[in-house]
Task: inverse folding
C-alpha cells in the first residue's frame, strides 16, 4: 500500500495526574515539590496514549493523509489501548508487538508546564526486522529515538534517500549532544530537521540561533526549523531565513505540542506550501493541542 506518510518513533500509555501541587521557585523556573513519605491527594487521573510516532500519525491522519506508524510495543493492556486509538484514527500499525513492556509516561501537571516521568519500555528496541512492510510512502517522519532505535532511524533515512522518499526528523537533546560531526551522515539524508533552541545549541555548539543554523546547514541539505518556546519560530535553508512571530500563547498543558507543531509543518510542506505558511500551520496545530489535556486530544481536522 502506498502511504502519504509513515511515522517512526515511540508509542506510550500516558497517565495525566491533575491536582494541586506545592511549587517552589528555584532560580529561573518553578519546581514541583513533594515531601518524602507524604500521601498526596490528586483531583483526577486522565489516561490516554502518546509518543512521537503515535501523536504525529494521528495528526496526519486527521488532516486527511493516508498514514502508517512504526514502533515497538508489548503484548499488554497498554499496547491494546494504543492499537485501539490507531484503529479509531485510521492509522495503520506497521511496527511490531514483542515480549516486554509498552512504554509508559506519567505526566505531572504544574502551573506553567509539566513534568514527565518516562519509562521507555520497548521504544528503544526498534530494528529493521521489526518493520513489517516495505516503506512504500511519499514521506517519512522520524520522531525522537534513542539507542538501538536511533541506529534504525539512521538506516531508514539512508533507505529513504536512496528511494527518493522525503524525510523529516525531530531529534532529542541526547542525540543532539553528539554534535554535527558525529551526526553528519544522518543529517545529509534529511529533507527537514526540527527541534528547539536548546537542542540546536547542543548540536552546533553555538549559542546564537543564526550561528547555530549556519553550522548545522553545512551538514544538512534541506530545511532547518528551530522553535524557541513561546517566542519566534525560525526556518532556515542555505539561502533563506524565515521568522514566524508567536502571539498570545496561553497553554493549558504542553504535552504533545512539539509533535503537533512538527506535524503541522510537515503537512504544509507535503501540500507544497511556502515556509512561512508551514510555520503558521505548525503553530496553529500546536496552539490547539496546548488548550487540551492529552497529547493528541486537540489535534485538528483541517488547517489553517
Result:
Amino acid at each position: 500500500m502506498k502511504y502519504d506518510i509513515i511515522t517512526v518513533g515511540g508509542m506510550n500509555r500516558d497517565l495525566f495526574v491533575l491536582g494541586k501541587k506545592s511549587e517552589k521557585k528555584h532560580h529561573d523556573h518553578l519546581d514541583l515539590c513533594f515531601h518524602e513519605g507524604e500521601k498526596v491527594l490528586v483531583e483526577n487521573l486522565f489516561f490516554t496514549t502518546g509518543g512521537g510516532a503515535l501523536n504525529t500519525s494521528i495528526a496526519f491522519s486527521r488532516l486527511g493523509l493516508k498514514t502508517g506508524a512504526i514502533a515497538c510495543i508489548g503484548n499488554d493492556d497498554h499496547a491494546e489501548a494504543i492499537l485501539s486509538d490507531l484503529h479509531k484514527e485510521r492509522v495503520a500499525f506497521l511496527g511490531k508487538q514483542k515480549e516486554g513492556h509498552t512504554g509508559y509516561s506519567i505526566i505531572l501537571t504544574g502551573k506553567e508546564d509539566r513534568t514527565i516521568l518516562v519509562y521507555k519500555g520497548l521504544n528503544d528496541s526498534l530494528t529493521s526486522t521489526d518493520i513489517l512492510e516495505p516503506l512504500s510512502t511519499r514521506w517519512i517522519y522520524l520522531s525522537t529515538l534513542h539507542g538501538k532505535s536511533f541506529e534504525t532511524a539512521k538506516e531508514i533515512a539512508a533507505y529513504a534517500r536512496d528511494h527518493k522518499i522525503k524525510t523529516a526528523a525531530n531529534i532529542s537533546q541526547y542525540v543532539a549532544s553528539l554534535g554535527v560531526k558525529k551526526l553528519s551522515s544522518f543529517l545529509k539524508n534529511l529533507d527537514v530537521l526540527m527541534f528547539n533552541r536548546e537542542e540546536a545549541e547542543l548540536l552546533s555548539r553555538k549559542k546564537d540561533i543564526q550561528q547555530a543554523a549556519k553550522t548545522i546547514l553545512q551538514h544538512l541539505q534541506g530545511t532547518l526549523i528551530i522553535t524557541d518556546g513561546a517566542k519566534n519560530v525560525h526556518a532556515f535553508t542555505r539561502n533563506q531565513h524565515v521568522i514566524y512571530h508567536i502571539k498570545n500563547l496561553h497553554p493549558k498543558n504542553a504535552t504533545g505540542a512539539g509533535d503537533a507543531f512538527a506535524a503541522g509543518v510537515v503537512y504544509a510542506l507535503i501540500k507544497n506550501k511556502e515556509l512561512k505558511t508551514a510555520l503558521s500551520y505548525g503553530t496553529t496545530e500546536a496552539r490547539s493541542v496546548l488548550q487540551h489535556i492529552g497529547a493528541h486530544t486537540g489535534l485538528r481536522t483541517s488547517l489553517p
User: Anything to note?
Assistant: The CA atoms of residues 208 and 249 lie 24 Å apart. The chain has a mean pLDDT of 92. The radius of gyration is 19 Å.
